[in-house]
Amino acid sequence: MPSGAGSHNPAGIGRSLPERGLLLLMVLVFLEGSVLPLGAASSPDIRHQENVDNHKAADPGHNFTKKAFPVLDLDYKHIQTPFEISLWVLLASLMKLGFHLIPRLSSIVPESCLLITVGLLVGGLIKLAGEQVPPVLDSRLFFLCLLPPIILDAGYFLPIRPFMENLGTILMFAVVGTLWNAFFIGGLLYAVCQIQPANPNPLHAMELLPCLLFGSIISAVDPVAVLAVFEEIHINELLHILVFGESLLNDAVTVVLYHLFEEFAGAGTVTVMDGVLGVISFLVVALGGVLVGAIYGILSAFTSRFTSHTRVIEPLFVFVYSYMAYLSAEMFHLSGIMALIACGAVMRPYVEANISHKSHTTIKYFLKMWSSVSETLIFIFLGVATVDGPHAWNWTFVTVTVILCLVARVIGVVGLTYVINQFRIVKLTTKDQFIIAYGGLRGAIAFSLGFLLDKNHFPMREMFLTAIITVVFFTVFVQGMTIKPLVELLAVKKKQEAKRSINEEIHTQFLDHLLTGIEDICGHYGHHHWKDKLNRFNKKYVKKCLIAGERSKEPQLIAFYHKMEMKQAIELVESGGGVKLPSAVPSTVSMQNIQPKKPPPAKPAERALPQLPKGREEEIRKILRSNLQRTRQRLRSYNRHTLVADPYEDGFGDLLLKKQRMIELEKKIKDMSNYLTVPAAPPDSPTMCRARLASDPQAYSMKQGSDGVPTIHVDLASPQSPDSVNLMDEFRQASQQQEKDEDQGLMMKPPSRPTGRRKPGETDADKDQQKLMRCLSDPGPSAEEDEDEDEPFLP
Amino acid sequence: MGSSSSNMNHIPNAQELMQETGFSAAHLLRLYERFEFLDRDGKGELSPDDFEAVRELALNPIGGRIIEAFFPQGQETVDFASFVRVLAHFRPNDPNRKDGAQQDQANSRTRKLKFAFQLYDQDRDGKISRNELLQVLRAMLGIQVTEEQLQSIAERAIQEADLDRDGAISFDEFKKSLEKVNIDHKMSVRFLK
């Protein structure tokens, strides 16, 4: 890999040059190769020739004798369409690869620009080769295949909280802003067209309605372009969600306006009645789209409740239901984008609670992959279509369009912000307004909508297309390239690293409750009040239906906590790879079932973990064990008692000591288990599980704790132990004593489960023990029988 | 506006209150009406029972603490001035207003955080101990969670926030752990503008 920014480094260049050369070669080969098949007409000839040759070569009188069996045949027609599609996708992906090999380029020029350029090149090459440029940006292909993955990706991973908090603002921009843009541009264009200079102008033929239609097509901010550009500038969450949300929600407006003007462009006039119908239609389109999406989302969530036995096809449900939501909405001419967003957003919390960890990863990566490929293809096709499409260049029209787009956007944003700021708590500053205005990029949706226009109704279609392409190019190239330096220049707040701490989560929830309470006291039914009501409704009814098993009762904080612990545990293990334990045995034993098959971090002394005390590693290992197998069981394996002791340990050496002792004990147990009548137990068996459990020093110390240490008791409310020093000594003594006792115990029978877990007062400890067994061993039910023979070692 | 101005006369020290808390006259009036609504026996003061009559507050996990926050140490009742002073914490922070030092304003970020902090810190020792954090967690998460999980979370939270390693969260540590959260947004009630 070439060194990132150090292209000045000769070694870096040296390394990247052969790679670059190779890549360019591959690209050229592919381009050349693609020119031939992508051309329409020539291929059948080849085959025909071949067949004729074969016949001629094999048998002169082919009518009478049988043909010689063709050993090698070329049948391109057979595979033409899939082959071409694959070739395009491959081209797109290679381009994406290529850009990142040239580090300087990709940091200056956004990817979308590069891709359009590539598209232009490919289109140009095809044209040069004399072939017919394939009509790749076919509207059906675009709307049915290329657009949905991008929108689904956006909708599924939409950050709900900031979206909902700013919903009013977003809607204002999306609806009112787009309407304003459409009418302003359309109206002024018409006015400009009517300007009659001395020489007659083809523009005079333009009527009002086509202008308005054109205005409505060009005024919508494009989600694909916004995503492509904003992804790279890492702007703060508020601005990102405002522009992005606007680009998503204005689809409804665009759909309505488009259909409205298209219908009536033929008729010539629009009455007030039509206007009213238009408004109603807007509401139907928008709300209908959301409703369709929500219904499919709930269906999908409900389905995912039952997929615990067929984990492999879980991602499929997510994709198929969402796609069907999109298609259903499109069928009724409702807003497909809003349906898709609603579907993704509604189903996500429930589906994520139901599906396995691997499915979650699969969904995430598939969505990212598809949307990435789609986006790349869209931009390349834009380039190709530019080369191809019939153009009618009209200087006045095009320049006026571009200028009007900019002006309308700026005026719209400024005006709307003035109104919106009256209602917002956190006002939008001038900088924010500038970025919002500047981020109003147009893209392929506008182009496709223009493409859909009927030539008969709109004789000016080519002119429209040319103007649309120009605007798209302008926004993507000029605005796309300059937005990053502008963001730096204006010192706009960047996206903060999203590592949410448990503190934030707790306090945010606390503040939510607080604010709800204050609102209730004031008698004001505000934002928090309704959110609280919705949460309560969700918890009481919806979660019970849509989430399988026990997870339906799991509060959000706990889910968050689990996720965080697991993430951290995995990071811990991955970063600790390569350090060998003194005895490899316990490591293999305990890490058998964990995905990253690396030895756990061995010597605490060598690793400087900023936040975790070393004693936590064992706990985290246990979390990994239980979580990664059956993630849905409530865990009882956390060792609360030592956690209580932990903060009072100031001795590093004590931790080290404990760790070593643990290792030794585990080793001992491994040896012990060989003496048992049961032959070498597979790691998953209950025996080994118990061995693992029992080997935890903390487990031992828990037992001891019930005797000697004052703090480890049921009354967990008072952990403040003044005698922390004594604690450590107790531990040391206790553990040493423990070892001796435990040896005997181990000789006699399988190591008993740690009784420390059985706190007085906890009646369901047995049940939890069983559950734990189920956690740790995949063959679940068999574990329960073994429980009966167990007796507590210490009462 | 005629009736409202006469109502304003009922409010004791209206002008001073407006000055101190930054509420406008209209807001003050609205709050006064609410105060009178809550004060069912017309004593001119509110007692904890009056607060508890607010139905939704009973469902709120920290409802009790919020009510307590209105009654500073030992007092049995709260008059309108104190009522307004507490609610002033939740006024949206107006960045354009430059009267007086920002820090002293009733609704500045620090004051808001201090208010929230005091809700955690019941014994007013200036620190959130593990015990206090546990109580809050227990209240919020209810019976759905096991003790061990609560302990674990409380432990984790303190570990993350506790920079000076004294086992409790001081106000500064509290502030620091919330530095990424937009408190002005989070702790403002739009009504009170």
Automatic annotation (TrEMBL), chain A:
Localization of this protein: Basolateral cell membrane
Q: What is the first-listed, main subcellular location in coarse terms?
A: membrane
Keyword field contains Transmembrane: yes
Query: Ion transport: is it a keyword of this entry?
Result: yes
Could you give one GO CC term from the UniProt record?
Answer: basolateral plasma membrane
Q: Name one GO biological process term.
A: sodium ion import across plasma membrane
Ranges of Basic and acidic residues compositional bias? 759-771
| Residue ranges of the TM segments | 21-40, 109-129, 141-158, 170-192, 276-299, 365-385, 397-421, 433-452, 464-487
Q: Where is the composition biased (Acidic residues)?
A: 783-795
Q: Sodium/hydrogen exchanger regulatory region domain location, by residue?
A: 584-688
Q: Which reaction does it catalyse?
A: Li(+)(in) + Na(+)(out) = Li(+)(out) + Na(+)(in); Na(+)(in) + H(+)(out) = Na(+)(out) + H(+)(in); Li(+)(out) + H(+)(in) = Li(+)(in) + H(+)(out)
Q: What family does the entry list?
A: Belongs to the monovalent cation:proton antiporter 1 (CPA1) transporter (TC 2.A.36) family.
Matching entries from NCBIfam families are given as: b_cpa1
Q: What is this protein called?
A: Sodium/hydrogen exchanger
From TrEMBL, chain B:
- Keyword Membrane on entry: yes
Quote the Pfam families the UniProt record gives.
Answer: EF-hand_5, EF-hand_7
Spell out the subcellular localization from the entry.
Answer: Cell membrane; Cytoplasm; Nucleus
Keyword annotations of the record: Calcium, Cell membrane, Cytoplasm, Lipoprotein, Membrane, Metal-binding, Myristate, Nucleus, Phosphoprotein, Protein transport, Repeat, Transport
Task: Tell me the GO BP annotations in alphabetical order.
Answer: protein transport
Q: Where is the EF-hand domain?
A: 26-61, 108-143, 149-184
**Family annotation (PROSITE patterns):** EF_HAND_1 (PS00018), EF_HAND_2 (PS50222)
Entry-linked InterPro entries: Calcineurin_B_homologous, EF-hand-dom_pair, EF_Hand_1_Ca_BS, EF_hand_dom
Protein name from the UniProt record: Calcineurin B homologous protein 2-like
Native organism: Xyrichtys novacula (Pearly razorfish)
